[in-house]
Amino acid sequence: MLPPRIVRRLVLVPLLFVIALAALVTLPLLAVVASVVALLPVPGRRRPLRLLWFAVVWLSAEALALAACLGLWVASGFGGRLRTQPYQQRHYDIMRRFLDLLYRVATRVFALRVEVEEPDLTADERAARLARPVIVLSRHAGPGDSFLLVHQLLSEYHRRPRVVMKAILQLDPGLDIVANRLPNAFVQHSRGGEGRFVAEIERLASNLDPDGALVIFPEGGNWTPRRWRRAIERLERLGRRREAARAKEMPHLLAPRPGGALAAIAACPTADVIFVAHAGLEDLITVGDVWRNLPMERLIRAKWWRVPVDQVPRELDRDGQVSWLYDWWERIDAWIAENRVPLAAEIKTG
Question: How far is CA 259 from CA 74, 193, 197, 288, in A?
């Protein structure tokens, strides 16, 4: 169960500073131990050194971000002006700098190569990127995809992303403070939770600025064989036979839950829709997965499609819109089938 906000502020935030300080103080000793392990003739001997470096950077960067947030809270009149546009932008700047740093360190330490295929940057495309808000519908396959997606929106598209997230993520102090000061939403998994999810989507979509981006993961969770089967069984129980049949033909994705996506499209009629696919992170879900795959030496591919506002089928009935969403999900599944498993051998020979 998630602790109340006051407990998180009084316990988890100081705890992060203590852990970050301890990591910095003991870094020389930890580095020596990790270096000794790296000399041993055992599999994965460089893993401790790589993870140590990344963990210290993460903890230090998050501690600095929290200190900056404290400074903004004081400067805003002890929170009185945090919801104003200048302070909102400053918090987005903190997010962007934090993610930029982690991106640079992660790609270097874990030997990652990221390739993002986007629409050609024509004059019309450039103008569209600046003129209208966007609703981003992305495949979900672990925390890495969320990290890369938000980083791309902030640093490359210069967007102000809004995300509906699981409430448990508020156990991370930095995410807890920054995300709760910006127009995001956290939802609990419970009965009737889908209705709350859709309501939060409508709230966030209804007042998107031209530089805003609402991020939605229609699958509702990471792909696993069990979840894939359960998603199909759920559709069959609901009598959605056609959608269940189409879901069976998409082995790399969970059947999309259309409620949130269609609610966002209806609530923001001026928005373009962007679909995002990626391959290379689907087997990195837990800390154990990361440990087993270090050093990674991975090629991560992503593809972005933009559907202009006048091509989004807002005039169709719900079944027509659901069919349109499934059409796109089938395209994403086909793309994943062609682009997955680009691992170390491919990078070294490429």
Answer: 40, 12, 9, 33
What confidence tens digit (pLDDT) does each residue in 101-120 have?
999 999 998 888 899 998 88
Q: What are the strands, taking DSSP E only, across the chain?
A: 113-117, 134-138, 160-166, 185-187, 212-216, 272-279, 299-307
**Beta carbons of 140 and 217 less than 8 angstroms apart:** yes
Whole-number average pLDDT of the chain: 89
For the CA atoms of 177, 144, 111, 345, what is the dihedral angle to 10 degrees?
A: 180
Q: How do 299-307 and 272-279 pair as beta strands?
A: antiparallel
Give the span between the Cα atoms of 145 and 280, in whole angstroms. 9
- For the four alpha carbons of 305, 311, 314 and 317, in that order, the dihedral sign comes to negative
- Lowest pLDDT segment from 131-135, 138-142, 233-237: 138-142
Global pTM reads: 0.90
DSSP code, position 4: P
What domain range includes position 277?
5-349
Cα distance between residue 262 and residue 243, in whole Å: 16
pLDDT tens column, 225-246: 899 999 999 999 999 999 999 9
